[in-house]
Design goal:
Keywords: Oxidoreductase. By secondary structure, the chain is of the alpha/beta class. The protein has helices at 49-53, 128-141, 157-168, 180-188, 203-210, 224-230, 261-271, 284-301, 317-325, and strands spanning 3-9, 22-28, 36-45, 74-81, 91-94, 101-105, 110-112, 148-151, 172-177, 194-197, 215-219, 234-242, 274-277, 308-312, 332-336. It has two domains: 3-124 and 307-336, Quinone Oxidoreductase, Chain A, domain 1 (Alpha-Beta Complex); 128-281, Rossmann fold, CATH 3.40.50.720. The strands form three sheets. Strands 3, 4, 5, 6, 7, 14 and 15 form a seven-stranded mixed beta sheet that branches. Strands 10-9-8-11-12-13 form a six-stranded parallel beta sheet, sandwiched between helices. It has a two-stranded antiparallel sheet with strand order 1-2.
């Protein structure tokens, strides 16, 4: 029998998650059935959507049950196999969550080639975050040469890819991030045309100055005060792919202040805006092969760069998760679980 060390949801958070919402435990894994493999987790992906899965609020996916393993994408090594096409030593992309080992159906796994790119990139630029940027921007945002694309949380795995893909398509990329270091990285390493620090006291004024011709595409990752500064600058027929609302994830109730919904609807009408929420899975069948081809090519020719924020050890996953929600990460957050 093989034991797994796993981090489970111990309780539902009220507001920001804390260590008390998680519990670490060990459990025996069942023997393999036909078509299954035994996996040893190498890397765990941490992503903002996980905060929503901790809650029972209405969402696009079921919440994690109390006592269940926290969800998450993983890169793992095959330790044993009873599935054709999978052998000991293979490296695969799966969804084992916050644990060291797992028994998984091989039909849900994708084999990776460690010789083509670092395997951790399958959780970032060559995985779900990269595809989220690719599909949301190209399918909904549809940037055209010469247009201005603004993206929030721009040094994260989705935002950084959005800006760089916009540049590939001939658009002007403006990134919004927290702090001078992140803003400098956007320009120096990711090739954005402008970067604005949302923590600056004159953030709204800086943003307006950075988009003299207005905003044609706003890729929404954050909402909150950032969105409030962006929306007055949207051009007629602007497109807004709504990917995430991280500023609201820890909210325990309705926000204080006046109801801004009537004004928001008014702006949609007056400017003929297209605002569309999306989940990347709805575009997988149509776009995923194109994404893998295009993104691999852009990385190879230097059009797209990526940055990883790696934490060592599964036991440090909760702290890394808290830091990501607070904006303390710098790049794609992954936990290195094993060598």
């Amino acid at each position: 029998m093989v034991e797994t060390t796993r981090i489970v949801l111990a309780s539902r958070p009220e507001g920001a998650p804390t260590a008390a919402n998680f519990r670490t435990e060990t459990a025996e894994l069942p023997p393999l059935d036909e078509g299954q493999v035994l996996l040893r987790t190498l890397y765990l992906s941490l992503d903002p959507y996980m905060r929503g899965r901790m809650s029972t609020a209405e969402s696009y996916a079921k919440p994690v049950e109390i006592g269940a393993v926290m969800v998450g994408g993983t890169v793992a090594e095959v330790v044993d196999s009873r599935a054709p096409g999978f052998a000991k030593g293979d490296v695969v992309l799966g969804y084992s969550g916050w644990q060291t080992h797992d028994v998984a159906d091989a039909s849900y796994l994708r084999k990776l080639d460690p010789g083509t790119a670092p395997v951790s990139t399958a959780l970032g630029v060559l995985g779900m975050p990269g595809f989220t940027a690719y599909s949301g921007l190209l399918k909904i945002g549809q940037p055209k040469a010469g247009e201005t694309v603004v993206v929030a949380a721009a040094t994260g795995p989705v935002g950084s890819a959005v800006g760089q893909i916009a540049k590939v398509k001939g658009a002007r990329a403006v990134g919004i991030a927290g702090g001078p270091k992140k803003c400098a990285y956007l320009i120096d390493e990711f090739g954005f045309d402008a970067a604005i620090d949302h923590r600056a006291p004159d953030f709204a004024e800086q943003l307006k100055a950075a988009v003299p011709d207005g905003i044609d595409v706003y890729f929404e990752n954050v909402s909150g005060p950032v969105a409030e500064a962006v929306y007055p600058l949207l051009n007629t027929y602007a497109r807004v792919p709504v990917c995430g609302l991280i500023a609201n994830y820890n909210s325990a109730g309705a926000a204080d202040g006046p109801d801004q919904l009537p004004a928001f609807y008014g702006r949609i009408l007056i400017k003929s805006l297209t605002i569309r929420g999306f989940i990347q899975t709805e575009f997988v069948r149509e776009l995923y092969p194109d994404f893998l081809r295009d993104m691999a090519g852009w990385i190879a020719d230097g059009s797209v760069n990526y940055l990883e924020d790696v934490t060592e050890g599964l036991d440090n996953a909760p702290d890394a998760f808290f830091g990501m929600l607070e904006g303390r990460n710098f790049g794609k957050v992954v936990v290195k679980v094993a060598d």
